[in-house]
Structure formats: structure tokens, C-alpha cells
Amino acid sequence: MQDEHADDLEITEQRRAQRFSLSSDVRLAWTDGEGMIQHVIAKGCDLSDGGASLVSPVPVATGAAVWLELRKTRVLAEGHVRSCRSTAPGHRIGLEFPGGIPDPIDGQ
Fold it and tell me: Which residues contact 74 (CB under 8 A, 6 or more apart)?
């Protein structure tokens, strides 16, 4: 992950991929079981080059293909849901990005 994401992130711990605190809203999109594209604004919790954690107002099925947009930096990441559990005040969703996080759109 490169420095251009620093506006949204701050370092919180070390893992296989360095993990950052994500303190902004994100846009999450996925295809539901009926083939319809769904989307929601969720609260980002943390982010690494290999995945993210967020809190969504709605659950998303484990294994679902997802697209995550970091709205401030306009970064789009593609991955899948590794976990989803009900929590207060929503659903804690763990995402995995097998291809990592790309550079911002339009070189921003």
C-alpha cells in the first residue's frame, strides 16, 4: 500500500500485511443471491493491502464478491467477504483482497 492513502489511514499494528486504522465511510457493493447489485455506505474500521474490516448496516453473505471504494482517495478494491457477524450497531464484515489495493483512480 502506498502513501497516497495516508489521508484515510493511520498505522495501528503489524500483521502479514501492515494494517491501518480506517476512519472514513466507504462504499461497499456486491451481487446478492438473486444476481442483483446491492450497495451500502459502511463505516471503515481498518485496512491492509490484503483486506479490510468494516461495519455495515446490512449483512453480506460470506464468500460474496465485493467491491470497496475508499471515497476520499477514490481507491477501488475487489475482493470477497471472509466473515460477517452481527454486532451493535450493525454487522462487522471482514473482507479479503487477493489482488491487493490498487492505486487511486485518475492518479489522485
Answer: 104, 105, 106, 108
pLDDT tens, position by position, 29-81: 999 888 899 999 999 999 998 999 999 999 999 999 999 998 777 789 999 99
Overall number of domains in the chain? 1
The percent of residues above 70 in pLDDT, for the chain, comes to: 80
Q: Which CATH number characterizes residue 53's domain?
A: 2.40.10.220
Distance CA 13, CA 106 (A): 30
* Domain carrying residue 38: 3-107
User: Which segments within the chain are labelled E, that is strand?
Assistant: 9-13, 19-22, 25-31, 37-48, 51-56, 65-70, 75-87, 90-96
Task: Fill in the amino acid letter for 108.
Answer: Q
